Structures are given as structure tokens and as C-alpha cells.
TrEMBL record:
InterPro entries in the record: Na/Glc_symporter_sf, Na/solute_symporter, Sodium:Solute_Symporter
Membrane topology reported for the UniProt record: Multi-pass membrane protein
Organism encoding this protein: Nonomuraea angiospora
Protein family: Belongs to the sodium:solute symporter (SSF) (TC 2.A.21) family.
Compartment annotation: Membrane
Keyword Nucleotide-binding carried by entry: no
Membrane-spanning ranges: 6-26, 47-73, 79-99, 126-149, 155-176, 188-207, 241-259, 280-302, 332-356, 377-396, 402-424, 431-451, 479-500
Keywords, ordered alphabetically: Membrane, Transmembrane, Transmembrane helix, Transport
Pfam families with a match to the protein in the record: SSF
Family matches, as PROSITE patterns: NA_SOLUT_SYMP_3
Name of the protein in question: SSS family solute:Na+ symporter
Length: 535
């Protein structure tokens, strides 16, 4: 920690500022009573365009994104820029479905995507499958936010887990008290800091390193000297298919995560959704600038912190800031990353808690749970989720959490037929969707299992580049497993739907009506979720 006093003081002061804001948020736009999921878990479903923009942006562009994307560019080059096209194509895609999701959720009082599936397909089992998938995919995502904070602490020379435990204890306390209002208010500070730091970085650092020509020349020299066939400042014939499928698969998965929908359902009308889908690509511009920090770190000669004998590439951005910025601004940059972890972690834990409360507790333990009881259960579960995330970091190898998040992206894609396509068509049979989900999971896990990582020496679950040679093709090309798995999912769901229709296997009842997918603010009064129907 010696030599980092100024950075630490600035970091702590800004952290204290957002802590106060988190607790004060309980009084912000205060309702008469916070004791319901609509108020605690969705902020009263009343956020306008600006709040939603900061909330959704703060949720999707996490601290781990700001740390991991440049780290991937630092280690692999052009492949790390996959995050840029996927955040460009995602918004036109979700523009088509999110307004529908908001409308039908507004009419029926849905809080989670599993609520929608429960009503759309009349199947508690399918809803349980969607809820568990969301929970499993979200948990490692929360743990990854801790890795973002940890990278900053390492750069300041702070080791040990106590600071992370304290940070998450504070986060848990104000999330418990204020619900979604806390991350919504803090997101303003987080995004302001991120924009200031990144704009300063892309102007100041290149000037200090001799310009963009020098930066790209240094990156090219590094990758030309490595034996790895997949790295370089441009793509090659072997990784182009993986780049495209990874970008497209990630785009399809992004808004299937439960926490992504939490911010959307908290908005007050359809126009807020449409305006945000038009304005959120501004974050993609910043993300492109953030990715370039990986090349800047190469040109600046940054060496990652060694952890357990291995280079921790997640530390290259904090170390780059420490090397080129004055101490006080480095502290601001560190605070931007640290606060950038708190906002998504809070929203993710609320989304996971809502899934448990609505689709497990209320479905299987107490169908007559009151609004107050639901809110209380969600508050407690949100604490449990955060404790679980901290334990993941304390007890497991951080690389294991990264691997789990990679798996999470593949499995959350398997909810696409029921959630995203379900908004447009009721053609699929509930049995076909469950079978397709299972087939997609098996295919995805099998492909991930076969992926080695020569750099780390891992034989299985070593990344997202599945070699097509495993399927008998005579090629060195690789592909994203999630893309193939969801194709298997759709094929199985379609074939079994045809079979079930032909053999007249009973299907669930659709509790939604076509007009409800276009309802807007002031339309039909919110109704309770109907819990009738067979499994």
C-alpha cells in the first residue's frame, strides 16, 4: 500500500459518498410503503428515461467489463473487440421484444421472466426451469464484480479479503434498506466517473505514449512474437467464425439475464424503453474506447500482478492508470471501477432474490404470500446471494468464478425460446421447450468440457473457442458453444412440439392475450399472477 496513499484516500472518499447515497435512496421518490416487490424490487415501476438509461447502462456495463475486456485485448488482441459489435447489434434486437415484455408484465404484474413463462405456457415446471437457470447464471456474475474491486485493491498493494467483505457488507445493508432505488441513484455517480476517466484516458494516454501509431505498433510487435495462432491486432481465418458467433450469441444472451430485465420492468412506460434502446448504444462507443486500453497497456510496458505464480491480466487497467495518471486522478479511476462493481452487483442480487421469491417460494411454499411477505423474503434472499458471492471469492479459485460465468452465458441462452420467442409466438409446446432446454444444456456443457486452455494448462472448460474438428470437420476453425447449443435447443423444441401436437399431448393454457403485449401506461390495472395450471 506504500506509495498509494493519495489514491486510497480518494477511493475511500468516493466510496463513502455512494454509501451515503445508497442509504438516502430509501427516501428518494419515496412511496407510502416499500413493502412490496413492485416498490423494493422494481422501484415502483416509475423510472423515466434518464433514470432508466443510467440504471440499465450501469447494470449491463459492469466493473468486470471495464477490467476484463481490456485484459482480453491485452492477451489476445482483436478477439477482445467482440464485445463491441455485440453491444451494437443487441439494441435493435431487443427493441423488438422488450416493449412487449414491459407491456404484458405491466398488465399481469410480472416481476421476473419466469413469471411471464409461467403465464404464457401455463407450466410451473417450465417456469421453475427458467428461474433456476437465471439463478445459476447470475450467481457467478455477481462474484465477478468482486474480482473487479479486487483488481483495484491489488494495484494499490492491498491484499487479503477483508476490504472486499466490508465493501459487500455495506452494499448488502443499503440494498436491503433501499432496494432498486439504491443502485438507480448510485448509477449516476458511477457512469459520470466512468465517462470522465475513459475520455481522459483516450486523450491523455496516447499523447503520453507517442500517439496511436506507437500504440498499435507495440501491440503488433507483441502478438507477432507469440506462438499462439489466435492472437493478433486483426482476426485471422481460424477465429473469425468464433468472433462472429461469440458476438451474436452474447447479444442474444444479454437481455435474457434476469437482472437486465429488472431495469427494463422498472421503467414507467413503453416510450421509456424505446428511447433507451435508441440511446444505450452510447455506452458501446465508450466500450470501444475501453477495449483500446488493452493495447495502451502493451505500449506502456505494463506487467500484470502475479497471483499464485500466474499473471493476473485483470490488473492491467488499474496498473496502466497508476503508471500514467497523477495520483489523485488514479484514485478517481479506481473509484470508478470499484463503484462500477457495486451498481450491477446490487441489481443482480435483487433480480436473483425476486426469482426465488416469485417462482420458488410463492409457487411451492406459500401461494398466498402477501406483498409484504414477498418483499421480506426477497430482502433476506438478496443478503444470502451476496454472502454466496463473497464465499465464491473466499473459498474458490477466482478463475473458477470466471469459468462459471462463461458457462452461465451458455446456459442463459437456453431460455431464449421460452422467454424471447415466447413474446411473439405460443406455437411451442411446453414439453418441447423443456426438452429443448435440456438438450441445449447438455450440448453446451459437452462442448465447453472439450475446450482446453494451453496457456493455463487446463484440459477442460478452458474458454469459448470450440474446435469444429471435434465434430469431424477438417478445419482449424472454432465456434462459440452457446450459439451451437441454442440451435440444438430450437431444433429439439420444434421437433418435439410437432410430435406432441400430432399425438395430442395436453399443453398448458395461455393466460395472456394479444392486446396485452401492446398495453401502455394507464392501461389495464395490474393483476395478480395466476398460479393455476398443471406441471
Amino acid at each position: 500500500m506504500s506509495g498509494h496513499t493519495t489514491e486510497l484516500v480518494v477511493f475511500v472518499l468516493l466510496f463513502l459518498l455512494v454509501t451515503v447515497m445508497g442509504f438516502v435512496a430509501a427516501r428518494w421518490r419515496r412511496p407510502t410503503d416499500l413493502a412490496s416487490l413492485n416498490e423494493w424490487g422494481l422501484g415502483g415501476r416509475s423510472f423515466g428515461s434518464w433514470i432508466t438509461w443510467f440504471l440499465v447502462g450501469g447494470d449491463l456495463y459492469t466493473a468486470y467489463t471495464f477490467v476484463a475486456v481490456p485484459a482480453l485485448v491485452f492477451s489476445s488482441g482483436a478477439l477482445g473487440f467482440y464485445a463491441l459489435p455485440y453491444t451494437v447489434v443487441v439494441y435493435p434486437l431487443v427493441f423488438l421484444v422488450l416493449a412487449r415484455m414491459w407491456s404484458v408484465s405491466h398488465v399481469h404484474g410480472f416481476v421476473t421472466p419466469a413469471d411471464f413463462v409461467r403465464a404464457r405456457f401455463g407450466s410451473p415446471t417450465l417456469a421453475l426451469v427458467i428461474a433456476i437457470t437465471g439463478l445459476v447464471a447470475t450467481m457467478p456474475y455477481i462474484a465477478l464484480q468482486l474480482i473487479g474491486i479486487e483488481s483495484v485493491l491489488k494495484a494499490m498493494g492491498i491484499t487479503g479479503h477483508l476490504p472486499i467483505v466490508i465493501a459487500f457488507a455495506i452494499l448488502a445493508a443499503y440494498t436491503y434498506q433501499s432496494g432498486l432505488r439504491a443502485p438507480a441513484l448510485i448509477a449516476f455517480v458511477k457512469d459520470a466517473l466512468i465517462y470522465i476517466v475513459i475520455l481522459a484516458a483516450v486523450i491523455y494516454i496516447p499523447a503520453k505514449l507517442g500517439g496511436w501509431d506507437s500504440i498499435f505498433d507495440a501491440a503488433k510487435a507483441k502478438f507477432d512474437a507469440t506462438p499462439a495462432p489466435g492472437d493478433g491486432i486483426i482476426l485471422n481465418a481460424n477465429n473469425q467464425l468464433q468472433y462472429v458467433t461469440l458476438a451474436f450469441g452474447s447479444a442474444l444472451a444479454l437481455f435474457l439475464y434476469p437482472h437486465s430485465l429488472t431495469g427494463v420492468l422498472a421503467s414507467k412506460n413503453r416510450n421509456v424503453i424505446k428511447r433507451n434502446m435508441s440511446a444505450l448504444p452510447a455506452y458501446s462507443f465508450v466500450l470501444g474506447l475501453i477495449a483500446l486500453l488493452g493495447f495502451m497497456a502493451i505500449a506502456a510496458g505494463v506487467k500484470p500482478v502475479m497471483s499464485n505464480g500466474k499473471a493476473d491480466n485483470n490488473t492491467i487497467v488499474p496498473l496502466l492508470f497508476d503508471k500514467v495518471f497523477p495520483d489523485w486522478f488514479t484514485g478517481v479511476a479506481y473509484a470508478a471501477i470499484g463503484i462500477g462493481a457495486l451498481v450491477p452487483a446490487a441489481i443482480m442480487s435483487i433480480a436473483a432474490a425476486n426469482l426465488f421469491t416469485r417462482n420458488i417460494y410463492r409457487e411451492y411454499f406459500n401461494k398466498n404470500a402477501s406483498d409484504r411477505e414477498e418483499a421480506n423474503v426477497s430482502k433476506i434472499v438478496s443478503l444470502v446471494v451476496k454472502v454466496g458471492a463473497v464465499l465464491c471469492i473466499l473459498l474458490l479459485d477466482p478463475q473458477f468464478s470466471i469459468d462459471l460465468q462463461l458457462i452461465g452465458g451458455v446456459i442463459i441462452l437456453q431460455t431464449l425460446p421460452a422467454v424471447a420467442l415466447g413474446l411473439y409466438t405460443r406455437w411451442f409446446h411446453k414439453g418441447g421447450l423443456i426438452a429443448g432446454w435440456a438438450a441445449g444444456l447438455v450440448a453446451g456443457m459437452w462442448m465447453l468440457y472439450l475446450i482446453p486452455n494451453p496457456a493455463s494448462g487446463k484440459l477442460h472448460f478452458g474458454g469459448s473457442a470450440f474446435a469444429l474438428s471435434n465434430l469431424g470437420f477438417d478445419t482449424k476453425m472454432t465456434i462459440y458453444p452457446g450459439f451451437v447449443a441454442v440451435a440444438v435447443n430450437l431444433a429439439v423444441a420444434a421437433l418435439l412440439t410437432l410430435l406432441f401436437r400430432a399425438t395430442k399431448v395436453a399443453d398448458g393454457e395461455d393466460a395472456t392475450a394479444r392486446g396485452e403485449y401492446f398495453a401502455d401506461e394507464g392501461d389495464p390495472k395490474v393483476k395478480d399472477l395466476d398460479l393455476t395450471g398443471s406441471h
